[in-house]
Every structure is written in structure tokens, then in C-alpha cells.
Design brief:
Mean pLDDT: 84
Radius of gyration: 19 Å
Number of helices: 10
Structural class: alpha/beta
CATH topology of the largest domain: D-Maltodextrin-Binding Protein, domain 2
Number of strands: 13
Distance between the termini: 41 Å
Low-confidence stretches: 1-41
CATH class of the largest domain: Alpha Beta
Order of helices and strands: HHEHEHEHEEEEHEHEHEEEHHE
Length: 312
């Protein structure tokens, strides 16, 4: 599977090269109050992450079970975030990040277990069977009323995805989207972006899975999908069995002045969980040592480049 995702990343680069050399605005989010990042190693290795004594002391006694850490992810969880739907492997951006945060807080392999939750139930605050959860959760004020977030670990722009020969191929600017029938995953900031920023003539279609999105495209219920850039790029190159939407293409991403940037992802916690402070200490440590940059480079480099669409 590692070879498959590397091949997918290479293919994504080839597809986008034909679209021009527009500068991407997707970046690693700075951790609040974090030290300056050192130069990242070429390839991330969990063995290089050391226990941060301050983070470990902070986490002591604050987890669901003393001496253990329960991490949640999606069901299923897809690349580039988790490979082969196996978060325990450390293969994939969020799998690697979660285990690095855990180790920084003093939880080694034997002390970490994983559970699955839906995206919607997690952001609604109805799931409490984890210490923290990560499924590309965007931090926003509405969600912060019912759950708590760590400092951001990644920032992603919104992108438009559709069949390569579909109506989206003519898109060059944000206003071109108003006449299209658009869809986004339910409960996401992508759906909010359609409603608040694009404001299309036809109400947005909400889907709960990639398969539903593909079915909606095939049936003509929607003509394009709005999603974060890394997810959109993965969908465009992965097979249907791997969670992709074959035959699609990322037509572009939206610039800061269009309201499409700054979608910051954070670890999600039960509301007012005291473990948030400890995770932030761990994230700051991963920033200062270069580990976060290395994890991001290793797993996300092939999923962040897309031409930037103009606002007007």
C-alpha cells in the first residue's frame, strides 16, 4: 500500500503540472506559542520522538484510563491520513501524528489503543469513548461550543473536484461556481464554504461517504464536489476500492481573499477536557524538533498542490 500511495502522489503531481505552476497556499499550521521549527529530517521516524517531560507530567491522570491513551479515527479511515485503514501502523499523516503526540506525552505503543467514530457524532460531542480524535476536524466557533480542540496541526484550503470532462472543467474563478450543482460531506466546513462563500443558485447536496458523492455525480444530482485540497487530490487519483472517485480531477483551490484558506485542523476532545493543554505541549515539542514538519512532508507533499482560482 505504501507503494500505491507514493504512486498516487506522483500521479497527482503529473495531473496538476498540466494546470500550471500556481503557487499553493496550503501550509502547516503554526502551533500557538510553539518554538521555531528546526530543519526537518528527510523521513519521519517515530523512534526519533522523545518523551516530553512537561507534556507527560501534564497528561498523568488525565486520560480515560490511567497509564493508557485511547485515540479515535474514522470508520473507515482513508489515505493519505491512514494507510490500509490501519491506524496502529503509524502509516499515514494522522496515524503518524497521533502516535507522535502520544509518545511525546509518554504513551508508548503498548499504552495506545484505537477506536472508531463517525465524523458527525464526534463534532456533535455525542461520542466520549476516546481521549482525542482526529479526522481532519476543522476548528470553528460553532464546534467549540460542544467540543474542545488542540492547537492546529495543519491548515488546508478548499478545492473543487469533478469529472474531468464535466462542467467544472470550465471553472476559472469563484463566481463561475454559482450556477453549478455542488456537494460536500455533511457536517464539514466545505459544506459551510458552499453555503456562506459560494452561495450557489441550487442548494448544496450533502453526502456521507465518497461512494455517495460518486453516486450523486453519476446521477447528475451534483456537478462538482467541494473538499479540502488533500482529500480532493486523493479522491482524484485513488481507485474506488481505496476510497477514491475515479475519473475526477481537481480544477483548483480557493485563495485567501476568496475565503477558501485557513481551514485549520485540530485534535478533537470532549468539551473542556484538561488533556488539551498536554496535547498542545506535545504539539509544540513536535514543531520545535521538526517532527511535525517531517510527518507533513512525508505524507502530505503530494496532496497539497493545485492551481489557485481567482476570486472574481
Amino acid at each position: 500500500m505504501r507503494r500505491q500511495i507514493i504512486a498516487a502522489a506522483t500521479l497527482a503531481g503529473l495531473l496538476l503540472a498540466a494546470c500550471g505552476d500556481d503557487e499553493t497556499t496550503t501550509t502547516v499550521a503554526p502551533t500557538t506559542g510553539a518554538p521555531t521549527t528546526t530543519e526537518a529530517p528527510a523521513v519521519y521516524d517515530l523512534a526519533s520522538v522523545e518523551v516530553n517531560e512537561e507534556a507527560a507530567a501534564c497528561a498523568d491522570g488525565k486520560t480515560l484510563t490511567a497509564g493508557a491513551l485511547v485515540i479515535a479515527t474514522g470508520d473507515p479511515a482513508y489515505p493519505p491520513y491512514v494507510l490500509d485503514d490501519d491506524p496502529t501502523s503509524g502509516e499515514g499523516f494522522e496515524s503518524a501524528l497521533a502516535l507522535a503526540v502520544a509518545k511525546s506525552m509518554g504513551f508508548g505503543d503498548g499504552a495506545v489503543s484505537w477506536v472508531r467514530t463517525s465524523f458527525d457524532s464526534a463534532v456533535a460531542g455525542s461520542d466520549t469513548n476516546f481521549d482525542f480524535n482526529l479526522q481532519q476536524f476543522s476548528i470553528n466557533p460553532d464546534r467549540e461550543e460542544v467540543v474542545s480542540f488542540s492547537d492546529p496541526y495543519y491548515t488546508a484550503n478548499q478545492a473543487i473536484l469533478g469529472y474531468a470532462d464535466g462542467p467544472g472543467k470550465e471553472i476559472t474563478k469563484l463566481s463561475d461556481l454559482k450556477s453549478l450543482k455542488l456537494g460536500a460531506a455533511s457536517g464539514t466546513t466545505s459544506l459551510q464554504f458552499i453555503t456562506d462563500v459560494i452561495q450557489p443558485d441550487t442548494a448544496a447536496f450533502e453526502f456521507s461517504s465518497n461512494a455517495d458523492a460518486k453516486a450523486a455525480l453519476d446521477a447528475g444530482q451534483i456537478e462538482a464536489i467541494i473538499s479540502d485540497v488533500p482529500t480532493a487530490l486523493y479522491w482524484s487519483v485513488a481507485s474506488e476500492e481505496e476510497g477514491g472517485v475515479p475519473g475526477t480531477k481537481v480544477f483548483g483551490q480557493f485563495s485567501i481573499d476568496a475565503g477558501g484558506a485557513g481551514d485549520q485542523w485540530g485534535l478533537l476532545f470532549v468539551k473542556d477536557n484538561p488533556l488539551v493543554e498536554c496535547a498542545n505541549l506535545a504539539l509544540a515539542d513536535l514543531v520545535s524538533t521538526g517532527a511535525l514538519a517531517a510527518i507533513t512532508e512525508q505524507w502530505m507533499a503530494g496532496y497539497t498542490e493545485a492551481p489557485t482560482l481567482s476570486k472574481d
